[in-house]
Amino acid sequence: MAEKCKACELFDSGHRACGGCGASLAARLVTKAAGANTIVVSATGCMEVFSTPYPETAWKVPWIHSLFENASAVASGIEASLKKQGRKEKIVIMAGDGATFDIGMICISGAFERGHDFTYICYDNEAYMNTGIQRSGATPYDASTTTSPAGSKSFGNQRPKKDMPAILAAHGAPYVATASIAYPADFMQKVEKAINTPGPCYVQVHTPCCTGWGFEGEQTIAIAKLAIETGLWPNFEMVDGKVTKVKKVVRKPVTEYLKTQKRFRHLFKPKQQDAEIAAIQAIADRNAEKYGLDIKLKKE
Amino acid sequence: MMEITEGSHAVAEAVRLCRPQVVSAYPITPQTHIVEALADFVANGKLDAEYINVENEFSALSACVGASAAGSRTYSATTSQGLALMFEVCFNAAGMRLPIVMSIANRALGAPLSIWNDMQDSISLRDAGWLQFYAEDNQEATDLHYIAYRVSEDRKVLLPSFVCFDGFILSHTYEPVDMLTQEDVDKYLPKFNPPERLDAADPVSFGMYATPEYYLEFRYEHDKALKDAREVIAKAGKEFAALFGRDYSAMVEGYKLEDAETVIVAMGSICGTIKDSIDEMRAEGKKVGLLRIRVFRPFPSEDITKFIKSATHVKRIAVLDKNISLGAKGATAIEVKDALYGSTVPVWNYILGLGGRDVRKKDIKEIVVLAEKGQGDQFYGLRKEVL
């Protein structure tokens, strides 16, 4: 089924996402990987809004949206219902980082603890984009958002990103992965793996947002790639709580990523903020150490 | 078969007989005995349902939303703070036209914290677009669950229902209840067969957003379905009466109204006390009657208007509310006044019994005296030190 659907489109064109929207690409890839025998549960957010203005829908699979924070509870009910009816559809949640890292946290914790069989995809664009770029628990350190603006007394968001994969691994999730739309084959493979693993699985996919981050739409993939190449977005898989696969890179300095986006421009203009950049580099270094991101080049 | 049983257990048994396929609930006093009993049924094979032990009431109802949309008959139960936590989901479930049935063991809302009975919880959700049934006793509390599923799932309605019964006063009281058999209920309540469901074989989108070009029409259709439920309730009530002898076809119930000069309007278990005090007052020569509201949503304006406006013997109406829209009046009084707009019969409102304050026969008699004197629109039975 999954193999066959790589050619078919279950997330239709004509939706209202911005040109260059990373999240819409994630929706397309997820439905391709999941196939037609899937029920999608969306949380309130950009994706829900750009894909389903009544009476139009971009979803060619059964789809439901209830509220902002309850997608995993709704999915729990669907799973129970399907089980009772002896039905075999797969359940995929698609929720943004605000719905996942912040407001949906209780529902997520409950559903993962209960062990329902579903796949939770968090499309992480690192802020509340639907309401106009406010910071979330997924917003990276020093990113300027409308509620964490950089100013004369602030460098933007003062906290590092919450470690959601670790939180869900701690719930006993059998499969947890991070992915990026810059590597579609890897992402789809992870989605398939999650769907085929019984129990609650989590895939957090990095989906750059041209509007919210401040870059031209054609740069989406390049920027997603730079996040991985700088070590700011570690791409890994965890099976039963243990990291089993990591995308290794020859790391580039974080400035190469930061310079591409307006949300970090206060780190370079009017003058370069070396201490702040060093702090962000330290985050990438810690990621590299924690996940073993660095390709060890043989000494010449 | 007649059984002496606790209200919560009688309700749980009625729910079991309705064959819900997904039960999702969270414990909260005084509702807990219902969900404990249902968990026990599932654990012992007496109820073939998926039982989801959720982490709070918000998720309890959210899980029902998912299960109902996927095509299952669903059930939950809550009260008070739990219902308040469900506020957002209540509007959502009704707007998505999902016929969930939920028992409410009515309880006060904090602060101050109170686990005891009044109706502030469900009344505060009167605008959520659910049907609201209110039981006087445990027989009615059980029977209204069969009626609620039947009406909610009717394709003319497709809306969720609250079945409200007073916390502790009914939920924890042992009363004789005539329990139906599985065969009886199967005869009355057909299998759940919604017109649309989440199904990979026939994909539809549920819960899309509506722009200003469409939202108003969604609300109109929701309101219309709730109002159309009046006819469906009447039909479902008549069929129930034909099968089992108890008639719930009317949204209001009259007690000794034929020549009543003072009409008391009330809901719930307090009506038993009111009926007893009416008997005593009538023995003393006072013409008092009761108009009991069984269905608060849709509101039975026409039934109230029909009776009061045509009855020249009615001199005054005393509306007893176990709730208050703070800064205004009790919810029932507001709606009764609205129904009787243009009538010259005075409508007096009494706020009483809040947070479990006991209401006795002598209180009802005192209220009738107050109404006769034209003294109303007040809290009844306040401690002197606050006055």
Topology, element by element:
The complex is a heterodimer of chains A (300) and B (387).
Chain A: H1 2-5, H2 22-34, E1 38-42, H3 46-51, E2 63-65, H4 71-85, E3 90-96, H5 97-102, H6 105-114, E4 119-124, E5 150-151, E6 154-155, H7 164-170, E7 175-180, H8 184-196, E8 201-206, H9 210-213, H10 220-229, E9 236-239, E10 242-246, H11 255-258, H12 274-291
Helix pairs in contact in A: 2-8, 4-6
Chain B: E1 2-6, H1 7-17, E2 22-25, H2 32-43, E3 50-53, H3 57-69, E4 74-78, H4 80-85, H5 87-95, E5 101-106, H6 120-123, E6 131-134, H7 138-152, E7 161-166, E8 174-178, H8 182-188, E9 205-206, H9 215-244, E10 252-255, E11 262-266, H10 270-283, E12 288-293, E13 295-297, H11 301-310, E14 316-321, H12 331-339, E15 347-351, H13 361-372, E16 378-379
Parallel strand pairs in B: 2-3, 2-4, 4-5, 5-7, 6-7, 11-12, 11-14, 14-15, 15-16
Antiparallel strand pairs in B: 1-8, 6-13, 10-12
Helix pairs in contact in B: 1-2, 1-7, 3-5, 7-9, 10-13, 11-12
Number of domains of chain A: 1
**Number of H/I helices of chain A:** 12
The CATH class name of the largest domain in chain B reads Alpha Beta
Strand order of the largest sheet of chain B: 3-2-4-5-7-6-13
The counted number of beta strands of chain A is 10
Q: How does CATH name the architecture of chain A?
A: 3-Layer(aba) Sandwich
Q: In one word, what is the shape of chain B? A: globular
Structural class of chain A: alpha/beta
Can you walk through the features of this model?
The complex is a heterodimer of chains A (about 300) and B (about 375). Chain A is α/β, with parallel strands linked by helices and about 300 residues long. Chain A has one domain (about 1-290): 3-Layer(aba) Sandwich (Rossmann fold), CATH 3.40.50.970. Chain A has helices at about 1-5, 20-35, 45-50, 70-85, 95-100, 105-115, 165-170, 185-195, 210-215, 220-230, 255-260, 275-290, and strands spanning about 40, 65, 90-95, 120-125, 150, 155, 175-180, 200-205, 235-240, 240-245. An 8-stranded mixed beta sheet of chain A has the order 2-1-3-4-8-7-9-10, with helices on both faces. Chain A has a two-stranded antiparallel sheet with strand order 5-6. In chain A, helix 2 crosses helix 8 (about 185-195) and helix 4 (about 70-85) packs parallel to helix 6 (about 105-115). The mean pLDDT of chain A is about 95. Chain B is globular. In chain B, the strands form 3 sheets. Chain B has a 7-stranded mixed beta sheet, with helices on both faces. By secondary structure, chain B is α/β, with parallel strands linked by helices. Chain B is built from 13 helices and 16 strands.
